[in-house]
Design brief:
This protein has 17 helices and 20 strands. It has 526 residues and is an alpha+beta fold. The strands form five sheets. The protein has an eight-stranded antiparallel sheet with strand order 16-13-15-14-18-19-17-20, with helices on both faces. Strand 9 and strand 10 form a beta hairpin.
């Protein structure tokens, strides 16, 4: 009943053009406010909830430091009391990675742009700056980040620490754009690192899970501002998986992702390519908006249908097919005869992926960061693993069969993205070009929809395919299993022991995925 009332209220607000802010969301910790304490003033009796409202905690104290000196002071004071310390970014990680019963540091006020080197195209920023704020500032300077994830609300340091990625076979994680960092270790020392100085610390810090200390600044490599031309076309999963057609499509543009609609053969191919020409201005870059399609159909109607389907999960396949038809009119390449797979790239798919013809209804042109990012819609349960690119066809076949065999009724989409291999110690892309496969179960109007069986089936498929879980997502693997997946695992732990011998920065999540160590009476690490 509460969900129905919520939907009715939201629909009324939408019809009348009124703002829609739920009472619970008004209390969310992440909402900006000019009356927030700063510096070393503590907030007590505070409860943290992540964005998807799937994990929360009650830290003993919350602080909003503005300067590096304040961060150093808070770390030293917490260590002297025996408290644990955990930094929280934007709270978008759908796991308990940011949770603590100790001291929580929110770096939203530690968010300045410190240096800009236009000649070498680098920018040094404080760790708490939001990516959305940074890309706006870079645009005024004629600069841009080379690749972004699907959202830009994370802090720079938080996105790097959890292995945030975009898509593109020639592009790596966000952390691959970092050239230097400064962090405060458990003793309150400021440690500088780069590929040429404290190299092991740098390669550990590029995907640190917040286990090494508090990152206070990051220097990022940029490129000249660019526009992206994006398009979405429909095809079939069979066509993509046959004869390595997926690989040709994945490399047919700078940035490519696939969305598969479970219980159907339907796939949406999203492609974005840099456009030549001068840097875009900041004016006139807003994308066309249709209230009916973007808000009524794409948000309100969809959420209400998802809510109804949560009471009759057998309706999920019907909803997936219906929504694909709403988006693409049900047009996909013709089905292969005799139940055999379609030809690798049917004439229709080839035609739709070709050329520079004028913008169509599924195409957009705009500033790069505005094309990379989009609305994640509703609260959701999310899981994502990284597998070797060569395993993609087998993994998708296994997942499709497993969903049918276990009679799972799952939401759309299954998202497939690509990333270049790197050398960060705990990067899911370490040592291999990577394909990310992510799954979603929406939580319409905050209603929890059962997902655990789906997650179990999905994770088993990913594990069989040599997968590594996304660090920001909730997954079942423990340190004993994870250490076998990362060749530089021991090197990361060595850096951790050096920077945080007493586990000042640990929490339940890190104890689970990294394990713990103890110290002897003489202080030696065991």
């Amino acid at each position: 009943m509460a969900a129905f009332v919520g939907f009715a209220a939201r629909a009324l607000c939408a019809f009348c053009g009124l703002p829609q802010v739920a009472a619970a969301e008004q209390r969310q910790w992440m909402r900006p406010g000019s009356n927030l304490p700063s510096g070393t003033d503590a907030i007590r009796g505070f409860r943290f909830l992540n964005w998807s409202r799937t994990f929360g905690c009650a830290p003993s104290a919350l602080y909003y430091p503005r300067t590096r000196d304040e961060i150093v002071r808070l770390i030293k004071e917490a260590a002297s009391r025996g408290d644990k310390v955990k930094v929280v970014g934007a709270g978008h990680s759908p796991s308990d990675i940011a949770c603590t019963s100790g001291v929580m540091l929110d770096l939203r006020h530690h968010n300045r742009v410190l240096e800009v080197d236009k000649a070498n195209r680098t920018v040094k920023v404080e760790a708490g700056i939001r990516i959305s704020e940074l890309v706006d500032r870079l645009a005024w300077l004629g600069l841009a980040l080379s690749s972004l994830g699907s959202i830009a609300e994370q802090t720079v340091a938080g996105a790097m620490a959890t292995g945030t990625h975009g898509t593109g076979c020639a592009f790596g994680l966000l952390s691959t754009q970092a050239v230097a960092m400064e962090l405060v270790d458990a003793a309150g020392n400021v440690v500088s690192c780069s590929r040429h100085h404290n190299r092991d610390v740098f390669l550990a810090a590029c995907c640190s899970l917040g286990a090494l200390g508090v990152v206070c600044s990051v220097t990022l490599r940029c490129e000249q501002s660019f526009k992206l031309r994006s398009s979405q076309v429909a095809c079939t999963l069979d066509a993509l998986l046959c004869d390595d057609a997926w690989r040709r499509v994945a490399t047919s543009a700078d940035h490519v992702r696939f969305w598969w609609f479970p219980h159907t053969r339907n796939v949406v191919v999203w492609r974005a390519t840099r456009c030549s020409g001068s840097a875009p201005s900041l004016e006139g870059e807003r994308l066309p908006f249709s209230w009916f399609w973007d808000r009524f159909v794409g948000y309100h109607l969809l959420e209400s249908l998802l809510w109804l389907a949560s009471f009759a999960r057998s309706c999920a396949p019907l909803l997936n097919r219906l929504y694909f038809r709403l988006l693409f009119g049900g047009s996909t390449p013709a089905k292969a005869s005799g139940g055999r797979r379609a030809s690798p790239l049917s004439a229709l798919l080839t035609e739709r992926l070709a050329g520079d013809e004028p913008l169509g209804p599924k195409e957009r042109l705009g500033r790069g960061d505005r094309i990379f990012t989009f609305d994640c819609l509703f609260k959701q349960s999310v899981n994502e693993w990284a597998i070797p690119q060569a395993e993609f066809p087998v993994a998708m076949d296994r997942l499709r069969v497993a969903i049918d065999e276990h009679a799972l009724n799952v939401d759309f989409p299954v998202e497939i993205r690509f990333a270049r291999g790197d050398d960060a110690f705990l990067s899911p892309c370490h040592g291999r070009d990577t394909c990310y496969i992510g799954v979603i179960m929406y939580r319409p109007y905050g209603k929890l929809v059962e997902y655990k069986k789906y997650w179990e089936v999905y994770e088993n498929v990913m594990f069989q395919s040599g997968g590594r879980p996304h660090w920001a997502k909730a997954h079942k693997l423990r340190a004993s299993e994870l250490r076998e997946l990362y060749p530089r695992w021991s090197d990361f732990l060595d850096v951790r022991r050096h920077l945080d011998p007493a586990l000042l920065f640990t929490n339940d999540y890190l104890a689970k995925v990294l394990g713990e160590y103890t110290t002897k009476d003489d202080g030696a690490v065991v």
